[in-house]
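Our platform keeps sequence and structure together, in a single record for each protein. Such a record has a labelled line for the sequence and another for the backbone structure tokens. The tokens are whole numbers drawn from a learned vocabulary of local backbone shapes. The remainder of this section carries one protein's record, kept here as part of the documentation:
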Amino acid sequence: MAKVAVVIPAAGAGERFGGSVRKPFAQIDNRPIFIRSIELFINRPDVVQVVLTVSPDDFDVVKQKYAANLMFMGIKLVKGGATRFESVRAALGHVDEAAELVCVHDAVRPCVLQSWIDQVFKQAAKTGAAILAAPLSGTIKRVKERKVEKTVPREGLYEAQTPQVFRKDLLLKACADVPADFVPTDDAQLVERMGQEVAIVATDGRNLKITTPGDMSLAGAILKEIVRQAKKAPPRGPFEEAQW
């Protein structure tokens, strides 16, 4: 069982979310989204560390307001950067030496199934790099100035999700040599540009990334169903693939 350090970037501004509260700190059933995302990992025997990155402007507030949560869950709090990439790179400087893999997971993606985490950890340990991704199911249009230019074949197209998991040395190398004009939209891009193959673990739309206020109620419903199904399911081992 490979040892994993988990990085949770929560330093984004969340312009599309709106309101006075940043997305990760918004609440579903009176619990912050970022706490729900962290809880996906803290009780796993293969996770040796969780690092949470927040905006420098939020650092003192988070440290004080969530002190009990951070202490109880053993979370390392780190100041992030202006971009996701900068936040992840800052977190890598605090990763436990014992970790063999680094898992990067969105703070606003709380609906991940444990079976998906099992599979992506296992795949990354085997190949060096693996991500969750969902095949696109709708008809895809390329649009310019609000007019359809072309219908794009969806065969072979996937939406990248998180967790994204990499061999630690591979991600460190990928983050060390990045041109100033290259702004990756996910962590897999960093290792892809090095020529590293990235394996896919297929998921579906339940692995929702909360982007707008309307996503909150949908995420709440998905979480309730995950809990309901988990109560019905028989106990499983740490790497047994559950249907839910």
In short: The first strand starts at residue 4 and ends at 10. The two ends are 22 Å apart (CA to CA). Residues 4-131+163-232 form a domain with the Spore Coat Polysaccharide Biosynthesis Protein SpsA; Chain A fold (CATH 3.90.550.10).
